[in-house]
Specification:
five-stranded mixed sheet, Glutaredoxin, 12 helices, alpha+beta
């Protein structure tokens, strides 16, 4: 399990500032794949105005799969830069989705955890695709985690994330706008801090099943718990 203690030590402003490095440092790509400066967008400009500090943050929608009225609700807290989370989605989530979510037995809620700016950027790209594409992009992020998250060069990370976004059907202008959305970055971090604190999340992946908290586990162990909850 990847520990969350380090993330809890990060102030909201510090992590948000890290997220905004894409815009402030000018990370973007040209059609040929070379790095070019991003023009500061309206969201970035808004942050510098006096009203921005007091303006209400946009709503961050929950990421949900399955039957809204299912007898069991499973909330997963996970980070896109967490290797244990990638392994969980490879070895557990696929069977969980097939056997319980798609069958209407379990309502699945995915909540993003941000250990670092790369994980936040990945979330912003995934959410850029909207509700219909989110979980498809999420799967690609985990499947390709070793490739895009391994670099120490933020420009390479951004280009790798944009490549995933393009594979999902988005163009560069759309992805750049999402990555440069300072207000949404702030809202995402605020939502993460609110929910993870309320649920006392200490590491990833963390599962909340009908209000009870569990750590990482095999599919066999998860299946036993779900079957008990389903009666």
């Amino acid at each position: 399990m990847m520990r969350l203690s380090m993330a809890k030590k990060l102030a909201l402003a510090a992590l948000t500032a890290a997220a905004l490095a894409i815009a402030t440092l000018g990370f973007g790509t040209s059609g040929q794949g070379s790095m070019t400066a991003l023009t500061p967008n309206a969201a970035m400009a808004q942050e510098t105005t006096p009203d921005a500090a007091t303006a209400p943050l946009p709503e961050v929608p929950e990421l949900v799969l399955g039957n809204a009225d299912a007898p069991v609700t499973l909330i997963e807290y996970a980070s896109y830069t967490c290797p244990h989370c990638a392994n969980f989605h490879e070895t557990v989530f696929k069977d969980l989705k097939k056997d319980y979510i798609d069958s209407g037995k379990v309502k699945f809620v995915f909540r993003e955890v941000y250990f670092d700016r790369y994980g936040l950027w990945a979330s912003m790209v995934a959410r850029c695709g909207g509700e219909t594409r989110y979980f498809g992009i999420s799967g690609m992020l985990y499947e390709q985690q070793k490739e895009w998250a391994a670099s120490d060069d933020p420009t390479k990370v951004v280009e790798s994330l944009k490549k995933i976004g393009r594979t999902a059907g988005m163009d560069d202008a759309t992805i750049d706008a999402c990555l440069g959305d300072a207000v949404m970055a702030q809202a995402l971090v605020a939502k993460f801090q609110e929910t993870s604190t309320a649920d006392k999340v200490e590491g990833t992946p963390t599962l909340i099943i009908n209000g009870e908290k569990y750590g990482n586990m095999s599919y066999e162990d998860l299946k036993k718990i779900l079957d008990e909850k389903l009666g």
